[in-house]
């Protein structure tokens, strides 16, 4: 092993220990072909690696226990090292180093950190299982991640906030929404994280960290059903049980390429579920595929006592033929250009793919105004429910949600009343539209933002998102997000959902329609993967190695 | 990317999907320099990789989502691929391929599988924390893995067996051993796995899998406190709370390079702890370092109501000077040659390092006979406690433990009585030896066996192990395993413990002595690591790359 390579490796370890970002950046080749991968995903290009490193905040103290060096070419070596962490556990690091004119540099790295007991950004507690469901039933084999606002017998509700958790007492009963799943044969895998008091759609949390985006490394997971979404997207659970007030199921579904259903308001009992704004609060589910979601919906919306489909109003027997799809034009205009374009392209395919399916446009009116009124009513209700707690626990909430409550405290009864009256207009409008049609729009105005986004920009994303998510909430309508779009993003190709909004109690029919649209318009996953892989040699092969 | 390399990669993926071992073996260079690493550790050499593959049992179905290829030299390419698993989640694979005369082969691989919610071979359930301890106290910050034979309030005891778990009801109180730790400020991280009914020392479990050995990839973890040991060794917990009847704390400590204390019989209350053989059952702890173990012992053996050292009999104030170390000759002779040699070399250092410390030899008599009598009494007691359950649940136990109970059922009262009488002789003998000395011997006759060991060979290891562990159990004496030896093993350099056995209630003094011996004789970890790393270029660097 060349002495100067050894020195370069030692320098790198020192820079890592000191979190010396300029030195670390300089140790990696400053090229678009440089690679760095770990359990969270693969970063391609020096820029992506730099951005990641800026938010990592250093690595745990470690000592090199073993080093294996292999000469691959005169100017190219493979260094594989095993590290022991001061706090226990070991890690593995594989690096390909290349001799540049001035020094050795890393052109590719693969890192495995020490094994954590579990990811505390995703879960608060997990078990194998935490609760075993019925030994037989249509949901047998499904592992459920329960959002930490829903009562699980024997456990406290933490609501994404440690102070809240400290003041909570163990629940004496499962929430009916949990019990339904257990009775259907699903098991509870664990209690998963939520944004604080479910009052956010970003998925970040200042107390226990931000869960990973299972579809887009480096991106926010979406919230507030953040933990269940990350658990499902990463395969740690099969079903996420969560809530949706302003988009808390639809947004993480859109950001992480999942299926997510906000149910008709009042259809799933909210007993044992921490409320945020009862006029809009709903319970629903996340899944990786439409078939799983449909199993869950069929069971849970069929009174839970048998596996038969529900009554006519929630029956999914329509084949989608003759469905009127109505696009709210303002919603598409509110999207970023890439998402709007991907959505329009998808629409053309969808219209052509379903026989007899018609496509129309409609106006929902001023989305910004609706969203503002929605936020006013949501805030007033949230403050009535939680204001006393917020006031009694100064400093307990993170900055973003604390700010939201501070604003909420200022809403006057007159403002609330006026906003409610205006929302009655929106409700009538959107309900009229879905009386004989299904609204179809992008679930979110764009893909998941980077975890590095600053608070002001994040707040702007939230405002833009509520423009799209508020109408279904105001209409008390079921809304399904289906992972049908792929759009460009600074973090790479990213999923965005297509949202279907239907009449009250058409939840199951919506899922069935979503499955048919997906089957008709989505490139099958395996074919897409094959195409990607086949294209790789031509598209992506570069000689990033020795010159 | 060369077409034949692409074909080789595709062949490899197909072989992986089919778990076609010959094809997989052939895809890797058949050389001692070939590398394969993952979260469990680094395998060096084609033989080690082959052995691992034989026990892996295939990989989960997956699709390649992305492939990055980099030419490193004419005959050497780096291929990095991202996989999506059918069951959700993604994985990352980095491979260095070399063109051999006949075909392309992998010379190095680094694999990251999908993220699991947690390792169910290590834990049954985990939380963040599962139970918060006192907010202040000498054990503050320590995360405890509780062996699944100890009562944790609200949870069932599973005893390493799913049928047992099914029949259990939630515990209404913490075991005192748990409560002590919580009151000292430690938190319960989770309930960790155990060998079935704690009736084994290997650490394997047929129901939920065998926990990893945190010090020696591919090796058994040791048991029956297997899960806590793996959790502590891998940094997923700081303290393991377990039990030791026949070596169940000492053996995993020895196998995984941990500190492990079997306490004086009766010193730690056994309320809320599933018994196996009450004449020998004890409660104790595992830790990665002596300082942590001493914190725990000082607190838990000081009546738990303050942090002061215990009474004189358990005081650790001796500085080790003047200590008489007595080596039971039969114990060393019962070890494998490498372990015996490492132990003797360590003894010479130890004698020289502690001023005034004297070294002597003594005879314990026929270890095989003692161990046989110990097993007879243990079996009789285990059958009295659990025989009815075992009979009522045919097929519930794995083969090894079921066989042990089948044998136990045959023990006659006369045999038990005779064995007890003979053990009285051993007890008197060993107690006389420790009256003014500390027994010192290897904790186990050798390092952790490979996970691939067949049942008959494993049973032989158990028998050989009990020869060394039974005397302290029969004597009802405290016994501390300190990670002081490194011995050769087929899986690489492996830890083996040095066991110190003292008079009753000298538990804390034993830990203090162990720490002084460790400080005087162990190569400090950082220095050892530095030496290893420094030696690497000369010792291990090989040109495994293109010829």
From TrEMBL, chains A, B:
<feature type="region of interest" description="Disordered">
    <location>
        <begin position="202"/>
        <end position="232"/>
    </location>
</feature>
<dbReference type="Pfam" id="PF11533">
    <property type="entry name" value="AtzH-like"/>
</dbReference>
<protein>
    <submittedName>
        <fullName>DUF3225 domain-containing protein</fullName>
    </submittedName>
</protein>
<dbReference type="Pfam" id="PF01425">
    <property type="entry name" value="Amidase"/>
</dbReference>
<dbReference type="InterPro" id="IPR032710">
    <property type="entry name" value="NTF2-like_dom_sf"/>
</dbReference>
<dbReference type="InterPro" id="IPR023631">
    <property type="entry name" value="Amidase_dom"/>
</dbReference>
<dbReference type="InterPro" id="IPR036928">
    <property type="entry name" value="AS_sf"/>
</dbReference>
<dbReference type="InterPro" id="IPR024507">
    <property type="entry name" value="AtzH-like"/>
</dbReference>
<feature type="domain" description="Amidase">
    <location>
        <begin position="133"/>
        <end position="510"/>
    </location>
</feature>
